[in-house]
Amino acid sequence: MRIGYARVSTPAQKLDIQEELLMKNGCELIFKDKYTGTRFNRPGFDECLKKIRKGDTIVVCKLDRLGRSLRGVLELLDKFNKDGITFISLQDNISTEGHYGKLMTNILGALAQFERDIIIERTSAGRRMAKEKGVKFGRPKGSINKEHEAKIETCVNLYKSGYTLNNIQKTLNIKSLETIYKYLRKNGIEPNRAKRNGLK
Length: 200
Known about the structure:
This protein is an alpha/beta fold and 200 residues long. Helix content is 50%, strand content 12%. It has a 5-stranded mixed beta sheet, sandwiched between helices.
């Protein structure tokens, strides 16, 4: 079964063109999402993942419809491969069908692993940087002190350098994302909650 997925990024954009292209390419079922507001919710895509089964094919018009970060897209493609699901991106001429598809799948899988290794390396570097600043990992005790201020400074620096909120949380061993929001706001930064899992 061919299952299509369409997404637009702004309320002003229309889904019609994507739907028409997906239907022309044999999609029997199409799931849709329209991004609105400040949060990146994808109920249509969540339903798509529940519906799709081994041997099915998921089709998008363009690769960026699948996700908003390279890491997220690669992880999804790696999951499709492991679950026996074929993936096709029409405009990018990407397909994991056939012999060429197996090669493409291996390349995408290698890229996904490379991306995971980079995240691990950056997290380790972030911990080293924090330790050099005197940060002791764990919840700070008592009143705000130099150690606490160092953790706040490190949190802000990691955020500015592109770390996701979840990576900052793991790197500095902060129990709550709300604590990170507080640290950032203390420095005049309104956190972008879409960056929680690597989304930009």
